[in-house]
């Protein structure tokens, strides 16, 4: 699995306004901005992302995924600093 493949999996299952994925092939870091996160707490947002990966988390295809999740409004504040 490479960063582009992981990015495609996430964006295929979740509408993303912004998505970056970095990592070393086993340990990944993602920044995900999605309107689907509106009204959800952090754990529910992460569960939505994990759902897009399906069994890849259980089969160790994606060993670790650290993520920051934002709604579009939260991201706008984050970017403007």
TrEMBL record:
Gene3D superfamilies: BolA-like
Gene Ontology process terms (BP): DNA-templated transcription
GO CC entries: cytosol
InterPro entries listed in its UniProt record: BolA, BolA-like_sf, BolA/IbaG_stress_morph_reg
Stored Pfam families: BolA (PF01722)
Family assignment from sequence similarity: Belongs to the BolA/IbaG family.
PANTHER family recorded: BOLA TRANSCRIPTION REGULATOR, BOLA-LIKE PROTEIN 1
Protein name: Acid stress-induced BolA-like protein IbaG/YrbA
Provenance organism: Simplicispira metamorpha
